[in-house]
Protein: Lipid II isoglutaminyl synthase (glutamine-hydrolyzing) subunit GatD
Amino acid sequence: MKLTIGHLYPDLLNLYGDRGNIQCFRKRLEWRGIEAEVIPFLSGDPIDFQNLDIVLLGGGSDREQEIVCNYLLDIRDDFHKFVEDNGVVLAVCGGYQLLGKYYKTDKKTIQGLSILDITTEWQPERLIRNIVLNSPLFDTPVVGFENHGGRTYIKDHTPFGKVFYGLGNTGKSGYEGVVYKNVIATYLHGPLLPKNPHVCDYLLERALKRKYGPDVTLSPLPDELEHAANQYIVDRYSDKKYVLKETIKRHT
Ligand code: GLN
Structure:
C-alpha cells in the first residue's frame, strides 16, 4: 500500500513548523510498512489532485495568505472535487481560513476557496495560547497551540471539537475548527499530529480506506510516549476530568 501526500505551498504556508505534520504522516506510515510519497507544491506549481491521497495546507501570515490566495483560486475546482470525493485534507490556521469564503482583515478582504461555508474576520487582539479540545472523533483529547487574529464563524458546519482550555474559532463560541467529510480544518498550529498521534492515524486510516477499501485498518504502534506527552498537556491545563465523546451540537 502507498499514500501520496501533497504539501501545498510550503514556501508560503509553513508557520510554526506545520511541516512537522508531514513528517508525522510519513513516519507513521513507514513504521507500518506502508509506502509514503510526499510531493511539495510550491506556489504556482500545477497540482494533479487525482494523484493525491492527503493534502496539507498550513498556516501563514496575512501577507502570505494574500499572495497564496491567487494560486489557490486557480486550483479551486480541482481542490473542491477532491474534498467532495472524500479526499483527506488537514488545513491549519491560515489554511483553515482559506478553505472558507473570505478572510476580512483591517486592510482588505482575502477571497477564499469557498469549499467550506465559513467566514473569518480579523480583530486586533490575537488569540494566542495553548489549547485542549474534546473532539467527538476521538476518545483522547486533542492538544495544541493557537495564534490567530481571525475569528472564524462556522455556521452550520460541525466543529472539530469543543474547547476545554483555550479560545478556539472566535474566542467566544466555545468551539474549535471544522470537520467536513475527510477534512479537518483547525487553528491548532505546529506539530499538531506529533502531539496527537490519534489524529494522525484517523486521517491516515481515512485515506487508506478511500483508496484500498473499508476493510483496511492501521496496526497499532508502540507510541505510549507520544500519548503520555499528550496526557501531560491535558493534565497541565485542567484539573477537570476529561469527558469521553461529548456530544457536539451544530451551532451558528
Ligand atoms: N493570518 C491569520 C490570522 O492571524 C492566520 C495566522 C496563522 O496561520 N497563524 O488569523
About this structure: Residues 241-252 have pLDDT under 50 and may be disordered. The radius of gyration is 17 Å. Helices lie at 20-30, 62-74, 76-84, 94-98, 192-195, 197-212, 224-237.
